[in-house]
Amino acid sequence: MESNHKSLPINGTDYVEFYVGNAKQAAHFYQSAFGFQPLAYAGLETGLKDRTSYVLKQDKIVFVLTAALTPGSPVAEHHKLHGDGIKVIALAVDDARETFETTTAKGARPYKEPYTISDDKGEVVLSGIHTYGDTVHMFVERKNYKGVFMPGFTKWEPDYKPEETGLLYVDHIVGNVGWNEMDVIAGFYKDVFGFKQLISFDDKDISTEYTALKSKVMANDNMWIKFPINEPAKGKKKSQVEEYLDFYGGPGPQHVAVATNDIVKTISALRDRGVDFLHVPDTYYDTVTQRVGEIDEDLEVLKKHRILIDRDDEGYLLQLFTKPVEDRPTFFFEIIQRKGAKSFGKGNFQALFESIELEQANRGTL
Rounded CA gap, 206 and 114, in Å? Predict the structure, then answer.
């Protein structure tokens, strides 16, 4: 019997906004290390008094890096508690007013009532709701806007423009939530957004001798939005999710997975620019082909770059995780190349957990 299920119409990730300690320096890092291109700027020169924002773009990925100009700014408060981290996961929609009305009617807590901003390039309609922790979703309707990013921003054109590294779009964004909160947040995305549960993992799937976690992956109908939600599970020692919650000061986005069409080229470029990745032991490659079967890539090349491989019913994927990209052991990136696979690298969790535990042991937080 065919279901009448329909998820909220979402056209993809519009932008991801990080609240950081120093936006100018963070922007330089994302340009230099990841190859993001300068797009737009807002700050004192554009009339802002309490914050400044640099907007960077690579293919379909847009990052906004925002820092406080005053100690009383909400940005400063967020940064004091969480350190550098994601505040806004913005979703592109056809109608920001209607999306706000629909989601709040289904129980979402309002963050920003619908409002319109405009300049000589047109108008953008925005609205927002709360999700887990202090993270929010902004709904962005920009069909009547022809400007560089949105009203209030000026074109940012520095001379410094390092080359891109082949990053294409946001594949998924993972949220870490507290004990027994995963089902609540997964339920929020199901009830408010109409998302479906793609997959779930429990502590039997994702565990080592010492630590474990549980996860549910929520996604919209067109699969452009995928939100895995993690919670800690009981283990002998402190898991990566618990470490995150301790240092972030509560729930928040754990990592953004960014897609590439050539992971070897991308990882090689990122390493050359100083991006640190988790260590994958040689032993991982001794048995990986027995598990994943035939692949197009040269295994020796993947081993050289420490790239992980996993397969599902529809194909395989290649992935690798950076170490945290700020001082607190919280937020990091995943680089992913999908060769048909729709899954999330379940077969790699053991290797991933062991390499994260090695890092935790080095930090003294295991």
Answer: 41
